[in-house]
Recover the amino acids of this structure.
């Protein structure tokens, strides 16, 4: 008879991997799990509880906020505030950072960056959506945390994860020692270990990109899409095109089956659409921990400089060999887009003048 291991039990068990651990990170992950269950409850009956549709407000990205965006945002902020382990929150739905000042959090040292509801365009049509979170330890030691504490590179993450609210609800996370997935068992109200030590296949046969933006894609991306569509049975091409439109659901599928997800620059989003701090960095950490690769077509996402809370970047992420192939195409057909290349050109010009 198989033994069920809950998220709480697993977290405590893994605490021994961190000799300095005092349980704060464990409690923080517990708090995220609690909010996820409440959001899951509403998502599952969204049509019945008047939580579909627009809230009538917009966020700093100019996007109309969905009622479920606001509900999820509120649930995660209050769970993190009550839990006492978080001193600062960065959320997609809040223009400014949220400094937590409560009786229970005066010694809190963790920063949580969160996309409370990912895939908002799919909420009203009953397609999988998700939540993405990224956790840092504050760098500043004295007094209140600062904005700088929230602008750390992705390499500084101590944990990251996502929840996918789909046919089943799963929580997948890493603390830098591999990736594990837990499925919510509604009958006991617990996330239970169902996908231990997740690994993304090195090669995959699925490419995931919004081809509706094709004409505005960089040449390197156009060439890569053509490569995916060419007939070559020896390499199982043409690959299948799959695009759900919820980054979390597209990446979770690729994590299990292998594949590549791309959101390159487009005319409407010249720097890419997805946000570095609470979408790209956490997903890059998880995918790398599962053996995959995550870049902006040139540079490792986790090493990118973080200049602002809601900064956007382009992302090429998934199976190692597929991402490398796409990078080859970018370097060959769109070298001008390499930040490094641009930086080098700029410094040469500066030196010459
Ligand atoms: O509709 P597009 O341009 O393809 O964008 C879809 C992408 O936008 C997102 O919905 C953005 O995330 P939010 O829903 O959290 O704003 C991603 O989940 C998804 O991959
Ligand atoms: Mg999102
Ligand atoms: Mg969102």
């Amino acid at each position: 008879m198989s033994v069920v291991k809950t998220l709480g039990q697993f977290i405590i068990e893994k605490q021994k991997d961190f000799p300095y651990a005092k349980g704060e990170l464990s409690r923080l992950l517990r708090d995220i799990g609690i909010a996820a269950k409440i959001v899951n409850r509403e998502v599952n009956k969204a049509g019945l509880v008047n939580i579909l549709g627009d809230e009538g407000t917009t966020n700093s990205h100019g996007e109309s906020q969905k009622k479920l965006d606001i509900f999820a945002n509120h649930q995660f902020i209050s769970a993190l505030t009550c839990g006492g382990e978080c001193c600062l929150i960065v959320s997609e739905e809040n223009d400014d950072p949220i400094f937590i000042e409560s009786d229970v959090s005066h010694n809190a040292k963790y920063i949580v960056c969160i996309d409370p509801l990912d895939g908002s365009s799919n909420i009203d049509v009953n397609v999988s959506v998700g939540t993405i979170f990224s956790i840092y330890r504050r760098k500043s030691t004295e007094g209140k945390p600062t904005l700088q504490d929230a602008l750390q590179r992705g390499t500084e993450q101590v944990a990251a994860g996502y929840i996918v609210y789909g046919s089943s609800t799963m929580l997948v996370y890493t603390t830098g020692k591999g990736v594990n997935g837990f499925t919510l068992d509604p009958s006991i109200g617990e996330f239970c270990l169902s996908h231990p030590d997740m690994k993304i296949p090195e090669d995959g046969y699925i490419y995931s990109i919004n081809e509706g933006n094709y004409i505005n894609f960089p040449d390197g991306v156009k060439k890569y899409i053509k490569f995916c569509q060419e007939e070559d049975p020896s390499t199982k091409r043409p690959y299948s095109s799959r695009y759900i439109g919820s980054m979390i659901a597209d990446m979770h599928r690729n994590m299990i089956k292998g594949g590549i997800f791309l959101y390159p620059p487009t005319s409407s989003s010249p720097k890419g659409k997805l946000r570095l701090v609470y979408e790209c960095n956490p997903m890059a950490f998880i995918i790398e921990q599962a053996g995959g690769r995550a870049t902006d077509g040139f540079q490792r996402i986790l090493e990118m400089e973080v200049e602002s809370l809601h900064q956007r970047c382009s992302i090429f992420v998934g199976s190692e060999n597929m991402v490398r192939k796409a990078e080859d195409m970018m370097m060959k057909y769109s070298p001008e887009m390499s930040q490094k290349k641009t930086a080098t050109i700029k410094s040469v010009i500066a030196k010459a003048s």
The longest strand covers residues 110-118. The chain has two domains: 7-195, 206-345. The two ends are 74 Å apart (CA to CA).
